[in-house]
Amino acid sequence: MDPAVRRYLADLVTTAREVLGPELVGVYAAGSVALDAYQPGRSDVDVALVCRDPLPRRTRHELVARLRHETLPCPARGLELVAYSRAVAGSGTPEPGFEVELNTGARMPSRVTLTPAERPAADGHFWYGLDRSILHQRGHPLVGPPAGEVFADLAPSELRELLVAALRWWLARPAPPGNGPAPGTEEAVLGACRALVRVHDGDWLSKVAAGRRVIALGRDPELVRRCVRARSGGPAPTATEARAFQQQILDEIVAG
Fold first, then answer.
1. Which of 78, 113, 180, 211 could potentially form a cystine with 101 if both were Cys, beta carbons 3.0 to 4.6 Å apart?
2. pLDDT tens figures, 102-130
3. Other beta carbons less than 10 A from residue 219's beta carbon
4. For the chain, which ranges sit under pLDDT 70?
5. Cα gap 18→83, rounded to integer Å
6. Which helix (DSSP H) or strand (DSSP E) does residue 130 occupy?
């Protein structure tokens, strides 16, 4: 783990313990940290916090105040933190169900959401079930029981529905004008690769690792190689190329 991220996560755990006390069940690294794919300067730090019971609103506000970047500076692009009750974490359901959501960082738009009802539908409600599925398989415990004991996976049919919703959400995003390299399209393509690998092999991988596995499967290898290189500074594909690949993967997952 990146040393600066390691120190930051240790401070985050200490803060969570101070705020929640015996209500704290565990703190888990997710995303690129858990998937061994953290890139300094590019990656976020994704954290799931689990509490024994639903949190009073004042406690949610205190968590936000103590963990926001201005109070606890994040060394990455930003922190994406979601807190769940133990019951929701272990429910295996696709609903968001979170207690609090905090996005904060020097290079990240700030977001504070205290209930799922406050989350705009246009921003997608599929993220949370997918994240808990990843945590079930690959979550890294910073404190608390193993992630696989705390987070339940989704049923295959519900997982497929959320992957389809995620792919449709990416496809619905407006395309930039022109047909030159479009920054961000590499994330959409590699996200589609990750969805395909999860359905095809049952594994949750980082976006780059999923892209490399898709290359090995012979699925538009040149496009996917360009997307992998784009994450290290190479040119991104055009929106037209990316959308065609995403649609192909979407059609395949829908068809089963």
1. 113
2. 999 999 999 999 999 999 989 999 999 99
3. 19
4. none
5. 15
6. helix 127-138
